[in-house]
Here is the input.
Amino acid sequence: MSTPDRLPIFAVSILAGLISASAQAASVARLWNEETLAAIRIDFPHPPVHARNLFHSSIAMWDAWAAYDPTAVGYLVRENPPASDVAAARREAVSYAAYRVLYERYGRSVNATTTRTALTSRMTSLGFNPANTTEIGDSPAAVGNRIAATVLAYYGNDGSGETSNYADPAYAPVNDPLILSLAGTTIANPNRWQPLAFEVAFTQNGLVAGKVQIFLGSQWGSVRPFALSLPDGANVYLDPGLPPQLGGADDAGYKSGNLTVIRRSSTLNPTNGVTIDISPGALGNNRLGANDGTGHTVNPATQQAYAPNVVPHGDYGRVIAEFWADGPESETPPGHWNVLANKVSDSPGFERRVGGTGPVIDELEWDVKTYFALNAAVHDAAVAVWGCKARYDYVRPISSIRHMGGLGQSSDPGQASYHPSGLPLESGLVEVVTTATAAAGQRHAGMIPGTIVILAWGGEPANPSSQFTGTKWIRAVDWLPYQRDTFVTPAFAGYTSGHSAFSRAAAEVLTRMTGSEFFPGGIASFTAPAGQFLKFEFGPSVDVNLQWATYYDAADEAGISRLYGGIHVPVDDGPGRIMGSQCGIGAWDLAKKYFDGSILSEQPTVALEVTDQINCRLRWAARRGFRYSVESSGNVTGFGPLLPTAMAESDRMEANVTILGANKYFFRLRRD
Here is the structure.
């Protein structure tokens, strides 16, 4: 479990941190969620994989809980077994369902033995026999085991490539690797992703990685989603369109976006005297996809204005770059938002009312509903975003900034080092070295005239535990993001931002689940202690108290943190937030129908395309897990056995139909 000093703090009265997962009050769903987070923290940090595992374990727990409810509907398994003690039966069925899914999924993880031992220990501590694998009968163990088996079978061939360790042999980068031990880069197409080549490489949680990056999750756009529906003729969900292209469409936007990243990098100096008010009264309350908010007038819980919170800008940028990088203990962004969701439910005085209204529900019901909706949303965000990443295969700033800086400057054909695809000049940020500025004691002292230089973070110091680099003039071809020099940037394309989408999707669900966009008490915070928090270098120079009024404010900060960290350009962030919002709202709207049982009355939509006088194509969309048969007013052939079974596998199917003997037909899909 995450240690308390690395977790967000929700209101002054609960500074002690997160309730222990072993505490008496925790529901079994919470315990299994904590086990999942623990497994993620010691596994290879592959966000889509962990979003998938969180979602599928949440399905298992939801279906096990719903089996004992007269109203709720399971997602994949719909049973109504007898139980003399419903609470005890649920506790047992949920545990068996979660245990079986997690034990199987993390059997291929980097630290499989450690994780499986922990999972088995948890089962034993709960009083359940891990060796009980029966799927026959109405016992809670059998119910849980059947549900787990169904989940694993249903998603065993969902497009993720699980059985081949999530590899995608169909993808190959168009660019040769950027060799980090050398300055600059050689890149064939500056609009496409370029893998990095390390001498020594580690993941963000310290695991040894391959020396040349491989695109993680390039196949993920084909993974089976929850609420997403692929538009006719499209191969990408929620397609935001082509990003800016250097030397092509929106060349100016490409250059401007990279300037923004350099500008953020230039702020990462805690000693330059520049400060920023990061209170909810000054930051946040943005429009979706933008950073135009000026904060909130008052805290709705207290009706008082938010107090100013002024810190060095260089400390703020460094802290959020590290805080949001992967989650406090590297549980990846989907896991991070599970941590935040758990913290919300632990807040003193928080009432567990779905949507903020209706009766107070117990912790287990709250948890299974929260995890089901939340993790469906972040899973859909992974599918949509990684589909976009593969579709556009977009460049990361490490490649684009070095490439443009190596070409020259694109602002003035009359100046030295001009190239139409070079970096734009900006006084005090991007400059050309001259004989005068290269002289001793000048800002570019010792540099070669004609070189393109930028004011930016200078790279990881020799001793990060006691030193910090700050910002300085460096050659553009030497620029590095604010990251460890053995990590630098993630192993997949940039457009769009997973952090932005995951975070906004989660924020939409938490807003709807709790009935308020505001955190409990109207504020949430996390304190990064001076000199103790940062890992890439020493710092911060003072205590930095991150604060957010709303889930949306926190999500937006997660997105913008990637610009400070040099991981993304703005066009990755804004569209990512919009995609995440669509995923979150869609997942919540669908999850509610399983909560209240209304999914059972939802009718499929049917479209009939007549191709000639006797042939047509019938296409339909409905919910997964339900089976349908066809009714018609005429003599129709061509359906065969397809229709009654197809809906167990997909929410969009089609069949060719032959019409015989009449001109008009009525078609209807009937739920079996």
Q: What stands out?
A: Confidence is low (pLDDT under 50) at residues 1-24, 635-652, 659-666.
